[in-house]
Structures are given as structure tokens and as C-alpha cells.
Amino acid sequence: MHFVLKAFVFLIFLNSLHCAVVKRKTYSELRSCDIGGLADEIASYDTVVKDIIEYVSGPFKGKTYDELAKFVDKFGARPSGSKVLEESIDYMIQLTQDEGLTDITLENVEVPHWVRGKEFATMLKPREKNIALLGLGRSVTTPEEGITAEVVVVSSFENLDAAKYEDIKGKIVLYDPIFTTYGETVVYRSQGATKAAEKGAVAALVRSIAPFSINSPHTGSQTYGENVTQIPTAAITLEDADLIRRLYNRGETIELNIKMFSTFDIQTSRNTIIDLKGIEKPEKLVIVSGHIDSWDVGQGAMDDGGGLFVSWAAPVILKRLNLRPRRTIRSIFWTAEELGLVGAYAYEKEHRNEMTNINFIMESDEGTFAPLGLAVAGTQEARCIVAEILKLFESINASALIEDDSPGSDIAVIIRNGVPGASLHNDNERYFWFHHTEGDTMNVEDPDELDLCTAFWTAVSYIIADISVDIPR
């Protein structure tokens, strides 16, 4: 072998040895956290963590997946305000009672009920082509004949602002931002119709907020601003958005006809609250949660069936193992998350005077794939304590702590009151491939990964609920 090649191979070998022996530092090590004797107390929960993991991989193996599959297969999509959503809530109540958990509270919530009707889009110029689209939540309808207009393509709000009013008036605005992160890009979906209407547009379309597509539009919520004309708004596929952009850049005149129909009213739904009472400080709460509603496309298996069921499983497993923490474990199934965190806002309003009793709040709403740790909001001391707890999960590679001042969706409404909290940090790189599409089905769920999430979620919530100190604020 040539000397240079031998040297290169040897360097690779040395590097592999280095990678094998160098241990990635934990958050608490990086931040030089010093939580005193509490570190030893937390370390003593190692046996409990092992017991929970062994139970979920043994007698409880596949239970979360099987129950989720039965739920999803029975009810499918569960839109806000629908009869099927309320039937699914009743089902979860019965499923919980069958496990001997009877401390269940239901709180009524007035929720939006937006029902999608027929939707069509056709390119008329420069050639005829059907365009796949999904109306965005609460979108108004078009006239019976639809809206026929020329398309103006913009990649940002800055591009729209720079355009003259007369260049946008009477046109259809298509936003085609390239997906960076969901948080950065979703504003074009949530605010696009309002900003286009302010410029005189007659409709607004958005390139689906996703990094990948197989001609699949992604729906989602949007909100009309005050004192602005409400115009129809929908998402189209990445493929069609890119096609229209190419035609537009070549100077072609692009004309679409859009027909969208829907109904809208207000219905009564319910937040579901399940308590496993603490034995010393029952008034203190550690909340685990997920939302039970979904969009009307797909089956809501990933968004948010998985999060719903790991939060259902936590008190169930603790009861089965006779593990009763000092504080109360409260599981909440939020209603009407998809159309604006409605259930969470209602809960915050109803329980505003009790915020000091929430020791910690958790939510899973970005998939239940292989758990990696938690995204945590709170003080530096709070994060240091949680980081110490996460060290107990190195065996399943779930010890990472991500600093995030607004983790989760529903729980952000609670966290803004100063309550520390966290969302599940998991290996969800493909989550937004299926998010808010017909592709959100049981096929995206993995039973073994769901078991890991279940064990992780249960054990973390138990430790936080049982340690001798409250999570500081």
C-alpha cells in the first residue's frame, strides 16, 4: 500500500479510537451546574428508571402502539368541533377508567368548527393543469364560480411590501418561501392571507410549509387580521409552487381558477384532565400532555396521537407499578389545538390563579420517534436540575437538553406565566414530511420507538414529581 494511503488509513483508525473514548459532555457539565446534594438524590432514581424501562419493554411492550392504533383506526381524523372528536374523548375517558384511574375532570371549551367542503384549483394559463390544494383553517369560501385571477409570486413579506399596490390588486398572491425551520417559515401560512389582502389581493396561496413532498399539500391554521378583507387562502404542493415560480420567472402570465367551499360555526368540546394524586403535595402538579384533536386530513396518528398516548400511558404505568410520587401527575388531553391552542387558552384562563401550583409542565407535539431528551424552558437552575435527571437516560440516548424559551405549542400558553416546562426532543427529522397531510397515518409510527418515548416520558415525569424540591422559577 502506498505510504500516503497507509498514513491516511492510520489517521482514520486513530480518529475512530478517539470518537470511541471521547464522551459527549452533558448540558450540566457544559454549564458547570452545581445543584449540591440534589445530584446524589437524583442519581438514586436510577433503579426506578430501569424498572420503568424494563416494564415498558416487558409486560407493557407494544401497549402504547396497540392502543394508539386502535384509537386511530376507530376514529381517524378528529377535527375541532366535530362529533367524532367528542366521541374520541369519551373513548379515552373509558380507556382510562378501565385502568382504574377515576380522578377525571372534564372542562367545557367553546371551540371553532371549520368544515372543509369541495376544493379545486386549475391553472388556465399558460396551460391547463389541475393544482392540488388544501384550504387553510378558517379560510372563507370563494363565490360559486370561483376566483379567476393572475398570479403574483413572492418569496417573502419584504418582497410583497416592496410591490406597488396596483401590481397586487385583483391578483392571487403565491408565497413560495424555501423551508428553513417550521418556526421561521410558518408565518407565511399563518399571516399570508392578511398581508396579501392589505395589498388588494383576492386570494392567497402558500407553498406548503415542509421540506419534502410527493405532491402532497400541507394544511394548517391561519388567522385573519382585524379591519382587513378576508380572502380565500390555501396551501399548494412544493412541486406546483416550484412550477409556478419557474413560469413566473420566465415572464409567463399565470392564471388560476380557485374554488373553495367551507362552513364555520362554534361548538362545545372538552379538555380532559386525569390526576394520579401525589402522596405528600397533591396540590402541586407535574403535567404531561398532548392534544387529542387533529386536522381533517390524514388520521392524526403522529400529530398528535403519539403525544396523546404517551401522556395517557404515564399515569397508567405508574399506577400499575404502584409508584405514587410526592406531587400529583396530571395528564391533560388538550382540545382544539390545531385551530389556535383553544383548549390551552381556556385552561390557562380557568386555572390562572393556580399557576404557582404547577411545578413543571410537559408536552409531546412534534412526533414520538426515538427520544433524545427534552427542550426545556425555565431558569438556569431549573435547567440544571432537569439536565441532571436526563443523565439517567444515557442508556437509551435520551440525555440531551435543548434550551428553548417556548417549547411545545399548548404549553407555551402556560409557560409564559413563568412556569418551567419542556417538550419532547426526539429524532423527528421527517416529522414535517407528513405534518398536516393525508400522510399522517399509523405508517409513520414505530412501536419500539413509541415504547422508548413512553418509558422516557413516564420516568421523567415521575422523578420531577417525586424529588424533594420544587423546580425553581
Automatic annotation (TrEMBL):
It holds the Pfam family Peptidase_M28. Homodimer. The monomeric form is inactive while the homodimer is active. One of its GO terms (biological process) is proteolysis. Residues 271-458 form the Peptidase M28 domain. Residues 1-19 form the signal peptide. It comes from the Eukaryota. It is found in: Endoplasmic reticulum; Golgi apparatus; Lysosome; Secreted. This is Carboxypeptidase Q. It comes from Papilio xuthus (Asian swallowtail butterfly). Keywords: Carboxypeptidase, Endoplasmic reticulum, Glycoprotein, Golgi apparatus, Hydrolase, Lysosome, Metal-binding, Metalloprotease, Protease, Secreted, Signal, Zinc, Zymogen. The keyword Metal-binding applies. Residues 148-243 form the PA domain. Belongs to the peptidase M28 family. The keyword NADP does not apply. InterPro entries: CPQ (IPR039866), PA_domain (IPR003137), Peptidase_M28 (IPR007484). Gene3D superfamilies: 3.50.30.30, Zn peptidases. Coiled coil: none annotated. One of its GO terms (molecular function) is carboxypeptidase activity. One of its GO terms (cellular component) is endoplasmic reticulum.
